[in-house]
Specification:
By secondary structure, the chain is mainly alpha-helical. It contains five helices and no strands.
Length: about 120
């Protein structure tokens, strides 16, 4: 496989990973929010967690932006079950972008010794 084909497959895997993380954590947050009565707050927290996990898995903020844009499109286009999926992707995706950016910046500030110690853990 050529190097450019490998890069395209890698980008597709990152986008799919961001989508799955946001959807999975977002729906867990949505369900927990229904039980607790704070749907939006729980979705936002779930999005932060998805962003943190994505940063550890080397998923970039641009991949989460794609997921957030899919959520915006679904939210504006429909009002039934796909609208709920759009709402989850919109709210959890927005905070996933912020959480991902935050953790990437924090990890880049680590020294080599701290990074090695973190990877051993």
């Amino acid at each position: 496989m050529k190097n450019s084909q490998h890069q395209h497959m890698n980008a597709l895997a990152r986008i799919l990973g961001a989508f799955i993380l946001t959807l999975l954590f977002g729906f867990v947050g949505y369900y927990a929010g229904l039980k607790l009565g704070w749907v939006l707050a729980m979705e936002l927290v779930a999005g932060l967690i998805a962003g943190f996990v994505g940063a550890v898995l080397r998923i970039t903020p641009m991949d989460f932006i794609f997921t957030w844009l899919v959520g915006v499109g679904l939210l504006l286009a429909t009002s039934d079950l796909l609208g709920v999926v759009g709402h989850v992707l919109f709210s959890a995706g927005l905070t996933a972008i912020l959480g991902n950016l935050y953790l990437i910046v924090r990890l880049s500030e680590l020294t080599d010794e701290e990074r090695k110690a973190l990877l051993r853990f």
